[in-house]
Amino acid sequence: MRKILTPLIILLASIAAYAQSDTLSINLENVKYPYPVSFLPVKVEGQDLRMAYMDVKPANPNGKTVMLFHGKNFGGYYWTGVIRALSGKGYRVVAPDQLGFGKSSKAFIHYSFHQLARINKTLLDSLGIPKITLLGHSMGGMLATRFTLMYPERVDKLLLEDPIGLEDYRTFVPYNSAEDDYKAELKTSFKSVKKYYETSYFTKWKPEYDYLVAIGGGVTKSADFPRYAKVAALTFEMIYEQPVCYEFGLIKVPTVLFTGKEDKTIVGKALLSNDEKAKHGQYKILGPETAKKIPGYKLIEFDNCGHIPHIEAKAQFLKALLANI
User: Fold this and answer.
1) Are 34 and 106 in contact (CB under 8 A)?
2) In sequence order, which residues have a C-beta less than 8 Å from that of residue 221 and are 6 or more positions away?
3) How big is the CA angle at 191 (ends 194 and 112), to the nearest 5 degrees?
4) Where does the secretion signal sit in this chain (predicted)?
5) Is 45 left (phi over 0), alpha (psi -120 to 50) or beta?
6) What is the pLDDT at residue 23?
7) What is the domain count for the chain?
């Protein structure tokens, strides 16, 4: 039991340590991840950058690898339970922090899903991993879709957990420039992060979710937060301008779509009227509609669950994941 709980204990201990400090680094140097973190050096637009990742090898390997792509407001740290469950079944698990997120470089570059997909392929090549099962959550679902479209020969199965981008936000969310988004991001505070997480991600808040706010809100106190805010604006622009919803029919690998039926996520929701909010982001409708577009799809829905089933409906999600991987 002690061995199983260690990764979670380490993460929670690091959050407790944060609570006694003034700030978090925007690269989360003072947040200890549940498993050892390594770095892949990459050169983008003439800049020497690095992408953080966890490579968790199981005690009794089954020869298969699962790669995890996190959502926009997160990093590899929130995959703890998923990694533990997969590793326990013999899967090797690779969980990167995408450029601009978590412990990876916060670079001023043109962010694109195509480029991020290529960097993740480079990571797999460096680790000698030929094929993967790919699980992407939220923004990670958009990236996982793009990766699969670009490198179908590297993906055995695509798993999408409440992916954003099931609709084209450009068709109903007013345009904001990266500079507009940057100014809005600069207003972010610990309090606003807490309110957003409590009202947008879960159907009912629990104290066990507090560590997400501690990390997401902690960086707002950093002297380097303006850089973090600028990168957040650039990645928002990536999501807005690079839809994948028109290409679901081109996916050629078995695909499973996991959705929380109470998820109402819309990227750019704050820019919409209440009437517009009611028309979009309804995953209980978007899930079935999207699944029909994907050849060989399977749809799994979770009742009374919001945007992050692997945390809010943990037991049900892990059971469904392991049965469909």
Assistant:
1) no
2) 22, 23, 24, 190
3) 65
4) 1-19
5) left
6) 80
7) 1
CA dihedral 285, 286, 290, 291 (to 10 degrees): -50
**pLDDT score for 296:** 86
Secondary structure of the chain in HEC code, one letter for each residue: CHHHHHHHHHHHHHHHHHHCCCCCCCCCCCCCCCCCEEEEEEEECCEEEEEEEEEECCCCCCCCEEEEECCCCCCHHHHHHHHHHHHHCCCEEEEECCCCCCCCCCCCCCCCHHHHHHHHHHHHHHHCCCCEEEEEECHHHHHHHHHHHHCHHHEEEEEEECCCCCCCHHHCCCCCCHHHHHHHHCCCCHHHHHHHHHHHCCCCCCHHHHHHHHHHHHHHHCCCHHHHHHHHHHHHHHHHHCCCHHHHHHCCCCEEEEEECCCCCCCCHHHCCHHHHHHCCCHHHHHHHHHCCCCCEEEEEECCCCCCHHHHCHHHHHHHHHHHC
Question: Using CA atoms, how far apart are residues 186 and 83, in angstroms rounded to an integer?
Answer: 33
Q: Contact, 123 vs 38, CB < 8 A?
A: no
pLDDT along the chain (325 residues), means of 10: 48 46 84 97 98 97 98 97 98 98 98 98 98 98 98 98 98 95 96 95 97 96 97 98 97 97 96 94 96 93 98 98 97
Q: How far apart are CA 167 and CA 186, in angstroms?
A: 27
CATH number for 25: 3.40.50.1820
71-105 core/surface letters (b: 16 or more CB in 10 A; e: else): bbbbbbbbbbbbbbbbbeeebbbbbbbbbbbbbbb
